[in-house]
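Problem statement: downstream parser choked on a complex file, so we are re-checking the raw output for the zinc ion run. The parser issue turned out to be on our end (a line-ending mismatch), but while we're here, posting the original submission so the record is complete.
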Amino acid sequence: MNKTSILFTALTATQFACSDPAEETVEDLDPRIDKHSYSIPTEAVCTHLDLDLDVNFNNQVLTGTAHWSIETNGAADSIIFDINDLNITGITNGNEEKLKYRLGDHDPVMGQALVVYIAPNTEKVSIAYTTPPSAKALQWTKPEQTLGKIHPFLYTQSQAILARTWIPCQDSPGIRFTYNAQVTTPEGLMALMSATNPTAPNAENSYAFEMNQPVPAYLMALTVGDVVFEPIGERTGVYAEPGMIEKAAYEFANMDSMLVAAEALYGPYAWERYDLIVLPPSFPFGGMENPRLTFATPTIIAGDRSLTSLVAHELAHSWSGNLVTNATWDDFWLNEGFTVYFERRIMEALYGESYMAMLAELGYQDLEADVHQLTEMDQRADTKLKLNLEGRDPDDGMTDIAYEKGAYFLSMLEEKVGRERFDAFIKQYFEENAFKTMTTEKFITYLDSNLIYADSTKMVQTNYKEWIYEPGIPANCPKFNSDRFSKVNSTLIAWSDGTFEVDEINTDDWSTHEWLHFIRQISDTVPVARIAEFDQAFGLSTSGNSEILAAWFESTIPIGYETINAPLENFLTSVGRRKFLTPLYKALIEADPSGERARAIYAKARPGYHSVAVQSIDVITDWKE
Ligand code: BES
Ligand code: ZN
């Protein structure tokens, strides 16, 4: 029985609006296209938000009212919002009249449906609420966890489905709305959002924001802290704690050139300004593409601008993701795969092909590792680009498949049709689908009519759908052979087999990427003494570059190299970036399967991690509260 017929038997005929139900797809039959939201936008949908928020660090509570403008199909007697652990204190319509509401069952991942009963012509729904200190999107950072150590810091992380833990909203990437907000903060702490932003604190401790381009809920973002602003170019700048601002401005000096390069590739930047804020080290991601204000981890500040491809990545999301948005989290590769491809094109424009090839090769290594790991874990279906995350946490889809297999898929298409045609196609795709949502199937239709069948000579022979609907890495996956890495390989072999002593290794012209390539390949059979010698020569255990440090720890934990113990513990208790934590805790568990060592470190570190990191590391370390 196919999926459609299963639905047939489950639904009564009266539920079909169309004349010939057999023609319909499952998506058409089920009004909830996005299985991770309770909302039914075809009945009643939010179009604009006026948000009032008060930020209280003493009790770690946001007190707010979300004034929603809504549109209904004229027949709806309710509108459904998503909430997760919000405390709803009252709901009214635009005329201050109380509205009745009901809460659905609580699901640990999805939260609850908030069903608000409305008259057919209702245009406004105002929801008053508070957040609990445990609200999952919110990180109430203690002063000790900041650089300045004096003021606390608050930041949000809404993607994928955590917006509903701080704002009652229709939390689906397919639902867009404009917003205004008014946020009051403690004395001297500036609020910033994914919107028009202040550049200095004000005396009233009250900040007004506007976002006039419609955005989905996962791009709602707020930070409050002791930060200052430094412009980079006309349209770009950085925010950071005062003690970090100079370093940050140096590190991100190329932001403006990135913006210019991105526009030259795929058309005008749609969000007016592009600023970036450096968050405290507990931030669970490298970066988050909140419109107008990228959130970034301080771990990309290496002092030599070598980790700025992350900025290119978040900037690229201003097109792929923020303009053309994945309709559901099953289509996540449309956001991330396009963005990694675009990120590499920006880096190539700025630093040349050989630099880009290193990024692509490291990415391929990540892809192979993820395919291998997911296969081992019996999750090979998760190595398809199009996912099925129904009934699961969308966070499960955040693997290198979406990122790297997605990017390599686009590189494969580029290889087939040539760069010129492919660029024209991508540019047109962004232009024609700006501020719209995209499903994988809609993309396939678009690709077929604008590229594949528009070029009958080459592409037709490419069975590209294998990339999307089949697991693993297809045989026609392109290769980026980096000359710079080939040289590193020779050095590595010579050092590993003893041909080279440490003082014969010439690393003078190595960038961070060559180092990463070298360190990643160090075999766990290399004797500890040789590792120690190498470390003495190159100071890796004390590297100020977080990527190098994390890779070094990952390669030397299995070897039992004890010199790393103190810096490793220091790293794990001060940095909360999940991409670093996951492999390190896994390596610790593998080295000591009792889990004692990993849990002893985690016990100290856990209170400082954001909930999304905690969720992952709890599983890895088998943590019981
Ligand atoms: N949008 C993602 C982060 C994200 C994805 C958060 C899914 C929550 C759910 C962001 O653009 C991203 O991909 N960040 C990467 C950086 C990158 C250079 C690949 C990260 O944080 O590592
Ligand atoms: Zn991304």
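For whoever reads this later: DSSP finds 19 helices and 20 strands in the chain.
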